[in-house]
Amino acid sequence: MKNFVVCFAAFFILCSNVHSQYGSIELNTGGFSFIPLFTSNKPHFILRAGTNDKKRFSLNLINLIMMDEFHPANYSLITRYTLIDKNFKLKVGLQVPGYRLFENEDYKSRSVQEIRASVSLNPKTEFLFLYLHGEGKNFQMNNNFYSIYLRKKIHKLVADSQLYILFTNLEPDASYGIAQKITYRLREKIRVNFFINKSLTDEVFNRTLGLQFDF
Prior knowledge:
single chain, mainly beta, Porin, 12-stranded antiparallel beta barrel, 1 helix, 12 strands, disordered N terminus
């Protein structure tokens, strides 16, 4: 319980200090990762906050806390800068830095750079691209992750269909797969998130369900 209070306090202070334009807490049957293969299957609280992403420069926080004993699991503080803001959008980002804390207290710190691009096909359809390059700070890791998305908005529902491939020095061969995220807005500040991921190179199969409260 103490770990949860400390993390939530830090989350609140950060939001206040950077004049956060968005924030939310999600109760999820699993975790969250930009790389679907790394999505946890254990229940988590997912805290998100950030400045207005309509500005050139934005700051974004994602903090995962395991529901079991409120164990802090993953932390990312991401700075992003918009290079192009037209129908075609281009952003670059940097984690400063991020970390993962395992249940055995094994602490792993990482540095991650990202490139995000999107183009609007029509008011309800977007095509998106994400590239992540991650390096371990206190352990050997070198990841290159590529993903393309098709995002479709239908009334209160948003569906992201994703194809991805991961090259990492931790595995001899590349890993690739497909993922689908569906978000349904129940009320103005309440959303239901469903996520499913299937690796096409091994038996990894992730499914998560979350209830997200915006504030």
